[in-house]
C-alpha cells in the first residue's frame, strides 16, 4: 500500500514540476509557449503586420530577416540594434559601419511593437518581435517555417564597437567569416545555410564593386565572377558611379525564398565576395554543403530553419535580465 502511494505521489510531483516548467521557464531557457497565457496572439499580430508591409515594400522581408541577424551577432539576440542615441545610449548600433544606411525595417518593427502593446502591454520584448518577424518574412516569401522559441528580454545598452567588429563584412575572407560565426557558437553548416538568406533582397553597389574592376589590387575583376554577369554588374555599378544603387542578391528570383542562391554560386553568379567564396575557395568545407543545398531545396530549408533557431539562441537575456521595452527605440524611463 505504501509503495503504491509513494509511486503515486512521485508521479504527481513530476506532473506539477512539468507544468511549472512550462508556465515559468527557467532562466536561460527559451520556449515556444512563452506567451501562451500572456499574449497568445503575438505570432498572428507579427505575421499580419509583415504581410501588410510586404504589400508596399517587396524588399522588407529580406530586410527584417537581416535585422534579426545583425541584432543577434552583437551581444546576442537582445534588441540592442533598435536603440537610438538618447539617455544612457551615447552610441547606437544603427550608426555602426555595417548598419548605417544599410540595415532597414526599423519602422516596421516599431509599428509591430505598437500593435502588440495595444493588445498585450508590457509583455512582449522587442528582441522576440525581431525573431518572429524574421520567421514570418521567410515563410511569407515561400520559404520554410519554424517554431520560434521565445522569452528573450531587451538590453539596456547598445554596443556600436561590437557591431563594427563582430558582424561579418562582404569584403572578408571565408576564414574570417567562419571565425566570426564560430565566435557566437555557429558552425560551417550554419554559415552556409544562413548565407542562403541572400536568396532574397538587394545589395548596394558599394558592397561588391571592388570585385568589378580592380579586385585586390590585381588590376582585373574577380576571376570567380561569371563574365556575362560581370558585364551586367559593371553596367549597373560603373566606376565612380552611385554606390547606393541596388542590385538583386539573387538575379533569378529576387523576392522568393528558394535555393536559387546556391545554384547561382555553381555558375559563379554570387553577388558578394563572401557569397561566391563559399563555393570558389579551393578545398573549403563549404563547397559540399553548397552543392547539397543547390541540388536539394528541402535540405536547405531544413538546415536554414534549424540555423535560425540556433542563431536565435545566441546569448538571450532571460528571467530578470534586461527589460521589456515599451518603445523599441529607447530604454524604459529614458
Describe the structure.
The chain has helices at residues 2-23, 42-54, 60-72, 106-119, 126-139, 160-166, 174-183, 188-195, 227-236, 260-266, 273-280, 286-295, 297-312; strands spanning 202-204, 246-248. The protein is an all-alpha fold and 334 residues long. It has a domain at 41-201 and 249-313: Peroxidase, domain 1. The longest helix is centred in the first third of the chain and has 22 residues, at 2-23. It starts with a helix and ends in a 22-residue tail after the last helix.
CATH fold naming of one domain: Peroxidase, domain 1
User: Total strand count, please?
Assistant: 2
* Mean pLDDT over all positions: 93
Strand content: under 5%
Rg is: 22 Å
Give the CATH class of one domain.
Mainly Alpha
Amount of helix: 40-55%
Most strands sheet: 2 strands, antiparallel
The geometry reads as: globular
Query: Which class best fits the helix and strand makeup?
Result: mainly alpha
Number of helices: 13
| CATH architecture title of one domain | Orthogonal Bundle
Low-confidence stretches: 1-27
> Roughly how many Å apart are the termini?
63 Å
Strand ordering within the main sheet: 1-2
Listing every helix as H and every strand as E from the N terminus to the C terminus, the arrangement reads HHHHHHHHEHEHHHH
Amino acid at each position: 500500500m505504501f509503495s503504491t502511494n509513494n509511486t503515486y505521489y512521485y508521479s504527481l510531483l513530476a506532473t506539477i514540476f512539468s507544468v511549472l516548467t512550462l508556465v515559468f521557464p527557467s532562466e536561460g531557457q527559451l520556449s515556444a509557449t512563452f506567451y501562451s497565457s500572456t499574449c497568445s496572439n503575438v505570432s498572428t499580430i507579427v505575421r499580419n503586420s509583415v504581410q501588410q508591409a510586404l504589400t508596399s515594400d517587396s524588399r522588407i522581408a529580406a530586410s527584417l530577416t537581416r535585422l534579426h541577424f545583425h541584432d543577434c551577432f552583437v551581444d546576442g539576440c537582445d534588441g540592442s540594434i533598435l536603440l537610438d542615441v538618447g539617455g544612457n545610449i551615447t552610441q547606437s548600433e544603427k550608426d555602426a559601419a555595417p548598419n548605417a544606411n544599410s540595415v532597414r525595417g526599423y519602422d516596421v518593427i516599431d509599428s509591430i511593437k505598437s500593435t502588440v502593446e495595444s493588445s498585450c502591454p508590457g509583455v512582449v520584448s522587442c528582441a522576440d518581435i525581431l525573431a518572429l518577424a524574421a520567421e514570418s518574412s521567410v515563410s511569407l516569401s515561400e520559404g520554410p517555417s519554424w517554431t520560434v522559441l521565445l522569452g528573450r528580454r531587451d538590453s539596456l545598452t547598445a554596443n556600436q564597437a561590437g557591431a563594427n567588429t563582430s558582424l561579418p563584412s562582404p569584403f572578408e575572407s571565408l576564414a574570417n567569416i567562419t571565425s566570426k560565426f564560430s565566435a557566437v557558437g555557429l558552425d560551417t553548416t550554419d554559415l552556409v545555410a544562413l548565407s542562403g538568406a541572400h536568396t532574397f533582397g538587394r545589395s548596394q553597389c558599394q558592397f561588391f564593386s571592388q570585385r568589378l574592376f580592380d579586385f585586390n589590387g590585381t588590376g582585373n575583376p574577380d576571376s570567380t565572377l561569371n563574365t556575362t554577369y560581370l558585364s551586367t554588374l559593371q553596367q549597373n555599378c560603373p566606376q565612380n558611379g552611385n554606390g547606393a544603387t541596388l542590385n538583386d542578391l539573387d538575379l533569378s528570383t529576387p523576392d522568393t525564398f528558394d535555393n536559387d542562391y546556391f545554384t547561382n554560386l555553381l555558375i559563379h553568379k554570387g553577388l558578394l565576395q563572401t557569397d561566391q567564396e563559399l563555393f570558389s575557395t579551393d578545398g573549403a568545407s563549404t563547397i559540399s554543403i553548397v552543392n547539397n543545398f543547390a541540388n536539394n531545396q528541402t535540405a536547405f530549408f531544413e538546415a536554414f530553419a534549424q540555423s535560425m533557431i540556433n542563431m536565435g539562441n545566441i546569448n538571450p537575456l532571460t528571467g530578470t535580465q534586461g527589460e521589456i521595452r515599451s518603445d523599441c527605440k529607447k530604454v524604459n524611463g529614458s
